[in-house]
Specification:
heterodimer; A: 640 residues; alpha+beta; 6-stranded antiparallel β-sheet; 4-stranded antiparallel β-sheet; 33% strand; elongated; B: 306 residues; alpha/beta; Rossmann fold; Alpha-Beta Plaits; 6-stranded mixed β-sheet; 34% helix; 26% strand
């Protein structure tokens, strides 16, 4: 340590002129705001910008120059023997010089930044200067990396030994491995994981360069060629260890099964059977989220590519629940390959297709899973899924571009398109004959000032349209025929009306006194049933768990929200209530629980299945058994 | 049991690719006195010195200083070693004053007074950057640094290079007088054979990386002689040659009709046998200078290779 300090002191003394240079620059920058054409109110910004840019540029330039000469010059000119002829270890010589010069560079940067500290406090390190830590770290890390890189490169160039080939090969291999580590994280929103892996790679580079440099000096001593060989061996050995460790860690981060989920979310549920699309995180895996198609019955699963929340990325199912399709891995911005799986098989496997779709494309599988419709850039393309053969491509007319498309049957596609009519909005309903490619307009919903949302029932016979007045924001719901757009009647509710499995409509409305009215109406004719739930602030219908029995979520104690929520099964015919449980989160909180089209997206979900799935307090996916009234653990959850 | 040698080279071998610079070199330098390692340019002296100082790892073999392995325990070994390199390597941006501060922090037995006294006596300026000093001053400063650390071993790599005659003499006087009194061992390499002849106790001669000679200087000089006999036509040449074999003839004018030879195994016994067998009248037996011995040993081919 004593020798290291002595080396450091010597190096700083030998280059103390740099401090004077920094002081001179700081003084010059202090007077920049007094230049002509700079207004007084711009003074702080000018000074801060000049300080920030000059400090970083000077730091980087000094790092390159000092790094390239810190040992390279002495080795080339045979002067390093002076230090090796003293009782000083090679590591003390290395660290003494490196720490002194890096420290000197940082001090120089700090001196140049000083004027910004004294000119209104808008320095890069003050809280009110929103620069972000990565940018601030650049002042520390960038000179460090450049210094060590410049030193390593300087030794390589000056020595000119065949070890150069190891350096070139190593650089390429490490670059490829780094890319392979980062690629799965780019553009999928795993920000923490991306930061950690990228930071680990930078740290690995720093460690390898530092170890390589130290070993080069300690083992090569006064011999430039041997310094190069020792440096290369140590650098690439260290890099290999670090990169391998990072790769293994990255792989471990990404690869975990649904059983390791400590917090499960259900994204979609197959229209038939017990398959669900789940995503979740696991312990110590940062913010990594894995997705799986998971069978709640058979405990089977199919891995899905990592991705963050986004309806458009959800898997789509055929109506029979036998086929699932999804986008492959990649960033949000790039076209991605389509994958599919025959999930009725005992060992379902993900299979790639040759089809790629843009991020904006909408997908729809026919009821039997044999055909796929891709709506992309105003064109509906229908493929035979087994042969990946294009059956027909239909170009939509310009007004029909904001479209939800769904198979009515394998030979017919139904389209629901919002269009602008002047300052109003309307919905066009049309059908495509797959055999002929003919597009036929079957009807239209009248124009409203603004259409908030619309929902179509699973049989595609009726649709609810919620419109909103742009003036008073009062919303109105009405029932229409989903084929020709004929108005059926208004729906009197302040909440979200939903279709029940038997075709009736559930109309929840919350009153000012805290009571909730649940009204059940047939789509046509008489038979209106009205129920009232008193003191049910915050109540919300969460799905139809048994035929004509909906799950209602409400506060355990309406006066104390901290007591959590309770779930109750409400019989829409009799008004009887049955306790399901408390401290449960309904999985349908994230998406509509009835099949059809909602919010512009096509939903095929098993209404009974999805309404029985809940997330318990441990984060596990549990399934409510209506027969026994018990919650059965399905997958995931934190250990108690 | 003898005293542990200050310097040991044991099978030292240095190769640069296919070139063998030092080939299985072994020697020991006992405590005290001056050991001179001589050799032509490219003979392997510098590689040997770098290995000895732990600045270069030998391809094979090892070297020790004061019992410490030069490569593995270099830091310990260097605590009591002073070094004057062939080309003074003090950082050029450093003054004598500043380098003294550094040396005082890293050298365990540093004597500042000794250092400054020497600089003052040699009129080496204290506040001039090393790079601006004359070559002679640079060398004096390097020597002052080496000596101020109270070394038990002083390694001098061609220390007189660039020194004028006065400075050379002064250096040698110091080595003989001051260091011998302190018991400091000197290991030096030099091309100044005349100068080193006056001070060396022991010499080693290296050629083509191999050690040809390692012995005390007076013994070396005693066995290398030039024998001159009276010219004669009556004595057959074969008889003269047979007689010379007893003296280990290595050079001189030994052609037919010549009357002198350089021998490397001169002894009274061998000389008597030469005289008896050759039956020539020996006119003179001359001692050779170290330089003459060196030339005999190392030959005249360029590059110092055998």
């Amino acid at each position: 340590m004593k020798a290291t300090m002595a080396i450091m002191a010597r190096e700083v003394m030998a280059r103390r002129e740099l401090l004077l240079l920094a002081v001179a620059l700081a003084i010059v920058i202090s007077f920049l705001p007094f230049l002509p054409n700079i207004e007084p109110y711009e003074a702080t910004d000018v000074r801060t910008a000049a300080c920030s840019a000059t400090a970083l540029a000077l730091g980087c330039v000094l790092a390159l120059v000092l790094g390239a000469t810190v040992f390279g010059n002495d080795l080339s000119e045979g002067r390093l023997g002076f230090f090796f002829a003293r009782p000083i270890s090679g590591f003390a010589i290395w660290w003494g010089r490196v720490l002194a010069l890096i420290g000197l560079i940082w001090v120089v940067e700090a001196i140049v930044l000083l004027p910004s500290f004294f000119s209104g406090g808008a320095s890069i390190f003050s809280a009110d200067y929103d620069m972000g830590w990565p940018a601030r770290l650049a002042y520390i890390v960038a000179p460090l990396i450049l210094f060590l890189l410049a030193h390593a490169a300087s030794i390589v160039v000056r020595a000119g030994t065949p070890w150069l080939f190891l350096d070139l090969g190593g650089s390429m291999v490490v670059a490829i491995i780094a890319w392979l580590n980062l690629k799965p994280l780019l553009g999928i929103g795993e920000q923490i994981a991306l930061s950690v892996i990228a930071g680990a790679l930078v740290a690995a580079l720093l460690i390898a360069l530092a170890v390589g440099g130290a070993m080069g000096v300690a083992r090569g001593r006064v011999d430039l060629k041997r310094t190069h060989s020792a440096q290369s061996l140590a650098l690439w050995s260290t890099m290999a260890v670090c990169v391998t460790a990072i790769t293994v860690y990255g792989g471990w981060l990404r690869n975990f099964g649904p059983r390791e989920f400590n917090d499960v979310d259900v994204m979609t549920v197959a229209p038939n059977g017990g398959w669900v699309e789940v995503v979740g995180r696991a312990n110590a895996r940062l913010d990594f989220e894995r997705g799986y198609l998971f069978s709640t019955a058979g405990n089977r699963w199919v891995p899905l590519p990592s991705r963050k929340w986004g309806f458009e990325n959800n898997a789509v199912f055929s109506l029979d629940g036998d086929t699932a399709m999804w986008r492959g891995g990649g960033s949000f911005e790039e076209p991605r390959a389509l994958w599919w799986a025959d999930i009725v098989r005992p060992d379902p496997m993900a299979r790639p297709t040759s089809l790629t779709v843009s991020p904006e494309a909408a997908l729809s599988l026919s009821g039997d899973g044999t055909r796929l419709a891709i709506l992309e850039e105003g064109t509906v393309s229908i493929y035979e899924l087994g042969e990946e053969r294009l059956v027909k491509a239909v170009r939509l007319p310009e007004p029909l571009h904001r479209v939800a498309v769904v198979f009515f049957d394998p030979n017919t596609l139904r389209l629901f398109a919002r269009i602008d009519v002047g300052n109003a909005q309307s919905i066009i309903i049309a059908e495509i004959d797959v055999a002929t490619g003919e597009l036929v307009r079957t009807g239209a919903i009248p124009a409203f000032e603004e259409i908030a949302w619309f929902a179509v029932d699973g049989s595609l016979q009726h649709m609810i349209v919620s419109s909103r007045s742009a003036v008073d924001l009062v919303s109105t719901k009405a029932l229409y025929d989903a084929v020709d757009g004929t108005f059926v009647r208004h729906l009197d509710t302040t909440g979200f009306p939903r279709f029940l499995q038997d075709g009736r409509i559930l109309l929840p409305s919350e009153s000012d006194d805290g009571s909730v009215a649940l009204v059940v109406e047939p789509t046509e004719g008489e038979g209106r049933i009205v129920h009232t739930m008193r003191a049910a602030f915050g109540s919300r219908v969460q799905g139809e768990a048994v035929p004509n029995g909906v799950v209602v979520r409400h506060l355990v104690d309406p006066t104390d929200r901290t007591q959590g929520i309770r779930l109750t099964l409400f019989d829409v015919d009799t008004g009887e209530m049955r306790n399901i449980g408390s401290h449960l989160r309904s999985t349908v909180g994230w998406f509509p629980w009835q099949p059809g089209i909602d919010m512009g997206f096509v939903w095929h979900c098993n209404q009974l299945e999805v309404s029985r799935l809940f997330i318990d307090q441990s984060g596990a996916l549990v399934r409510w058994d209506p027969e026994t009234g018990e919650m059965v653990h399905v997958v995931g959850g934190r250990a108690p | 049991m003898g005293v542990e040698p200050v310097v040991t080279l044991d099978g030292l071998t240095v190769r640069y690719g296919k070139l063998t610079a030092v080939d299985d070199l072994s020697l020991e330098v006992p405590k005290g006195g001056v050991f001179a390692l001589l050799g032509r340019n490219g003979s392997g002296k510098s590689s040997t010195v770098r290995c000895l100082l732990g600045q270069q790892r030998p391809t094979a073999g090892r070297s020790t200083i004061l019992g410490f392995d030069s490569w593995k325990k270099r830091r310990r070994a260097m605590e009591r070693v002073g070094v004057v390199p062939e080309n003074p390597d003090v950082p050029p941006d450093t003054t004598a004053n500043r380098v003294e501060k550094f040396m005082a922090r890293v050298t365990p037995f540093w004597r500042s007074a000794n250092y400054f006294d020497r600089l003052d006596s040699l009129e080496v300026p204290r506040n001039v950057h090393f790079g601006r000093l004359s070559k002679g001053q640079q060398r004096q400063l390097a020597l002052a640094l080496a000596l101020a650390g109270s070394p038990r071993l002083l390694v001098l790599d061609d220390p007189t290079l660039g020194l004028d005659a006065v400075a050379r003499r002064k250096l040698y006087e110091e080595l003989v007088g001051e260091l011998a009194d302190r018991g400091t061992t000197v290991f030096l390499t030099t091309h100044d054979l005349a100068g080193v002849e006056a001070i060396a106790d022991r010499v080693g001669v290296i050629r083509g990386g191999s050690l040809l000679v390692d012995e005390k200087l007076d013994v070396l000089k005693a066995r290398f002689c030039r024998v001159i006999w009276a010219a004669t036509d009556t004595v057959p040449r074969e008889r003269i040659d047979a007689g010379l074999q007893h003296l280990g003839v290595v050079g001189g004018n030994v052609a037919a009709g010549a009357n002198e030879a350089v021998v490397q195994k001169f002894s009274e016994f061998g000389f008597d046998r030469f005289r008896q067998e050759a039956r020539v009248e020996v006119m003179r037996v001359d001692s050779l200078s170290l330089e003459e011995i060196f030339i005999v040993l190392c030959g005249t081919e360029p590059g110092g290779q055998s």
